[in-house]
Task: structure prediction
Amino acid sequence: MTTVNPAPATPAGRKPTSPPTSAKPKRSGHRNRDWLHGLLMSAPALGGLIAFVGAPFVYAVVLSFYNVRLGSPLPPRFFGLEQYRRIFTDPDMSGPFLRALLNNLTFAVVVVPLQTGLALALAILLNRKLKAIGLFRSLFFLPVVFPMALVAVIWRLILARSGDGLLNSALDAVTFGNWGAFDWLGDGLTAMASIIVLSVWQGVGFQMVILLAGLQQIPGELYEAAALDRASRWQQFRHVTLPGIRSTLVFVALLTSVFSFRVFDQVYVLVKGGGLDEDATRTVMYQAVTTAFDQNNIGQASAITVVFFLIVVALTLTQRRVVRAGNED
Result:
């Protein structure tokens, strides 16, 4: 039989003392300093974003509610939602806008997978230890350095409809004189395809560099282990390369999507000086600029940019959610 000794009684007039607890270090001050330092370091970028993106967009929203015309002696007149109603219901305004939006979507649907896939193929090709590999990387990246206006002028010479056009001359030589002069930019079936080829050629080097950096972060031990397991090149690409650059690949796809929706320079240069089919290649940015400066209708152009901004934001958020759901699965 066991006996339990009673706990010693606490002397009268003295409160029982609780066991000592370990004091937790106060990190609130440290976190506040980190937050302040982060805010100070990001202040230039935030200031530029607010000054050159946020403020102009807010001003465009305000202008979209007014009837504002360049060079008009009349003061701006409040229109309310009239500009937005005209964009979607007025045949004279809704037709060009919806056609431009369809052209933008077509351009994005083709360019995003094509440019991303080509950039990945080039990155894998150049991710090797070869002599003069830096020279080849520079050559593939070189078109990115050229401004889009210059690239459009170069491709205008390549795609010229006369027999002196470089592409027509090459096809005429290959077919032994059986190929006649073809209007690549003026034909509705090939005009958008020409813009797509031009844009992919100019921008694929930028995505290639980003993916190349991602490929170089994959440990070589993973490929050695896969080779020991007798994995083929395709199996190594599928089970080692793609999982290793998944985040980079998603970033490149999202970035390419944003760039594809703001296509303007090449269309404007080729329409104004290269005989490009305007209806087949009209984009929303082109429609907004021509409405503002050719038709002098600032209010309607502002409404077009606001609607297009909301559409692009909605598509981008949807794409991110779909990609995130796929990564979680």
